[in-house]
Amino acid sequence: MGGFGGLGMGEAVRRGLYHRRNWSHRQLQYICLSRLTATLLTSILAVVLGSLQIGYHTGNVNAPAKIIEEFFNHTWRARHNQSMPDHSLTLLWSLSVSIKDFGALLGSLGVKYVADAYGRRNSILIVNCLSVVGAGLMSASKACQSFEVLILGRLVFGLFCGLVMSLNPLYIQEVSPTHLRGAFATLNQVSFASGILVGMVAGLETVLGTEHHWAMMLSLSIVPALLQYLVLPFCPESPRYLLINRREESEAEAALLRLRGSSEKVFSELEEMKDEAAHTHTGVTIHEFFKKGRYKQPIIIVLIINLGSQLSGFNAIINYSTRVFQAKFDQAKYLTLGVGAVNLTFTLVAFFLMERAGRRRLLLTGFISIAVCNLLMTIVDSVVHLVPELGSMQVLLVFCLISAYELGPGPISWFIGAELFDQPARPIAMAFTSMLNWGGKFVLALLFPPLLKVCGAYVYLLFMVVAMVAFVFTWVRLPETKGRTFDDIAEEFRGAEGIPLHNKAGFNTFP
């Protein structure tokens, strides 16, 4: 092959004769596409069925909220011969919405244990049973005439959310080729956004969001859960887990061969894993994770990016968009459906841009756009009662905010932790990521309604400040991880308390 000096692609990659910066776009594209195999694609698609279920239960409670609240009231009336007070009903519904996020926060605590004890793939299969149990409880609540069963079901499902939204990126990042790692990790968010849209459609009164069918609607996530049980057992375990965690080189090589399809492609990747293994210890405790100097800066980066993503307003809009729109539009439920469609569209845009623009550029663009949208939301919401025509502008701003979130902060916040930490610390980092994400969602779901009542339109200024802090910190501290091996990224933090703002590759500046 002329492009590789007559050596052939596999030999050129093996000898490391061509750094990524020296490849032409056509050569790089050829190498990336040639690494795709049916096993790799099947493994990733099977794994993201979990995030599809989570998205479904995020979107399906929005539109039929009044119907399910009436079920709560009817159950209370049957027990106590009187209706539930309005403030109690509002509190109970807020608890029902947010309890999933609280369960996810608890579930995050178990990520390190299951990921290291059972492996990445097997852990996903084990925790999938929580989804089946949770959906079954939610669906059975109507037949049991018990809103407590519905709340318990959402709590159990929340445990599944906290575990799987960390395990999924962990598995995807460890089985993906380096130059497609970010794009494939974004597929987890694409599946999540797809689930939100499907859930929103299912929750419409014209579909399943009715008094007679809402319980069946809550059970439909069992379908992808069972499909995952049928497909994922036939997919390989993470080769990186097998080699570095279990020291099983032959099994790791066999798994990598299934994923890459060619022994030529396996050699260099296996050597890179061995290099990383030589630089890492067999395990890291939680105490060591927070104490070691090499992890301090990555921890702060993960903290700021995740809290910036979750507390910048997106989750408030997803959870309460129907009620926000209802004050101004008759067809609020269909505008909410538009929220889901825009959400999915820009997640797909992020998928195609992830390996072109890089993580830094997408995060910076997303955070500054979110801040501007929140500022404009404050202005428009403050004067919309004087100029009703601005109601349409408010809808447009909501769509723009969602677009900005899914362009970078949404998908990247879930997997950046897996890229910044070495193999022993990666499960703890993903547990930490999950706790921050779900903790932020829980706090916002619980506090947004009262904050909206107290602060009115100025609540969006709080979101703007959060987004600006995240933007500034990302600009100053986040290194670019696009196209770099795990060991290369980890090298930036080894033996150092801080991150150099500039280095020989110039990855801390815009290209």
Automatic annotation (TrEMBL):
Its main location: membrane. GO terms for cellular component: sarcolemma. Gene3D superfamilies: MFS general substrate transporter like domains. The chain crosses the membrane at residues 30-52, 91-111, 123-143, 149-171, 183-202, 214-232, 299-322, 334-354, 361-380, 392-416, 428-451, 457-476. Residues 43-482 form the Major facilitator superfamily (MFS) profile domain. Belongs to the major facilitator superfamily. Sugar transporter (TC 2.A.1.1) family. Glucose transporter subfamily. This is Solute carrier family 2, facilitated glucose transporter member 5. It comes from Eleginops maclovinus.
